[in-house]
Write a structure and sequence with these properties.
Elements (H helix, E strand, L loop, with lengths): L13 H7 L4 H17 L4 H14 L4 H13 L3 H15 L5 H10 L3 H8 L9 H17 L3 H8 L2 H4 L7 H14 L3 H14 L7 H8 L7 H19 L1
Helix pairs in contact: 2-3, 2-4, 3-4, 4-5, 5-6, 6-7, 6-8, 7-8, 8-9, 9-11, 11-12, 12-13
């Protein structure tokens, strides 16, 4: 797959660059460039990112960072079985538990919420950092919802992290998930309160909490382009009437 000229491979994280030092220099550079493309495209063009990840995988399947990148690219394209296999491979290579929550979410994607809940109660969770534990809580709550256990999902999300007024990288997503679970359970007033709290914490627009809040408040947004086209149509109609 083509690599843009502005991509040098030096953009990758220093830890990944260190991993690639086990490869011949030219090969390491090629792999690095493909990994840069995966990171660049995964949000806006997940299929494109997946394509570059497969190239990197063919070139260096024994590098943990490559297996992890391939896992996230497969995950972004909802290829959950493939993603899970790649994450497991990366974990075997590194011994790290960092990927445990996303592995559990792959189980959800494969229609196995019970397995995700088993993973949420496994000893590996205690080895996760705070961000990882919050992510695991989000996955567990999602699994409960998959099983139709809305009240259990709400309880799962209730935690010191949810109650805290401090804004952390995970705060907006945690508050959003809680609001969404409350709304699904018919607790509209509480849901509105927590969507508002999610908006307060969502400094980078990682959720659509503001849209959900506006929807609850009965606010309708009109697309500016559609409105312009409507005005133009009305103007044409008036011109015909004048004729």
């Amino acid at each position: 797959m083509p690599i843009p000229e502005d991509v040098t491979g030096d953009e990758i994280d220093k830890d990944v660059r260190q991993e690639l030092q086990s490869l011949p220099k030219t090969l390491a550079e090629d792999v690095a460039k493909n990994l840069v493309m995966v990171a660049r495209l995964i949000d806006e063009d997940p299929e494109g990112a997946y394509g570059y990840s497969r190239v990197a995988l063919r070139l260096a399947s024994r590098v943990a960072a490559v297996r992890e990148a391939a896992g996230f690219a497969a995950y972004a394209t909802q290829k959950y079985g493939e993603a899970l296999a790649e994450f497991r491979a990366a974990r075997r290579m590194t011994g790290s538990v960092e990927l445990w929550p996303v592995m559990a979410d792959c189980e959800r994607g494969l229609g196995r919420p019970e397995k995700a809940l088993d993973m949420a109660g496994a000893p590996e969770v205690h080895k996760l950092d705070k961000a990882g534990q919050v992510e695991m809580r989000l996955v567990a709550a999602g699994a409960r919802r998959d099983m139709g256990q809305l009240d259990a999902a709400i309880v799962t999300l209730q935690s010191p992290e949810l109650a805290s007024n401090a804004v952390q990288p995970w705060t907006a997503r945690l508050r959003y998930a809680y609001a969404d679970a409350l709304l699904a359970a018919g607790r509209r007033g509480e849901a509105r309160e927590w969507f508002a709290k999610a908006v307060e914490a969502d400094r980078d627009g990682s959720t659509d909490a503001s849209d959900r809040l506006a929807e609850l408040d009965g606010v309708e947004f009109v697309d500016a382009l559609d409105e312009s086209q409507a005005d133009e149509t009305a103007g044409d109609a008036d011109a015909k009437d004048d004729d």
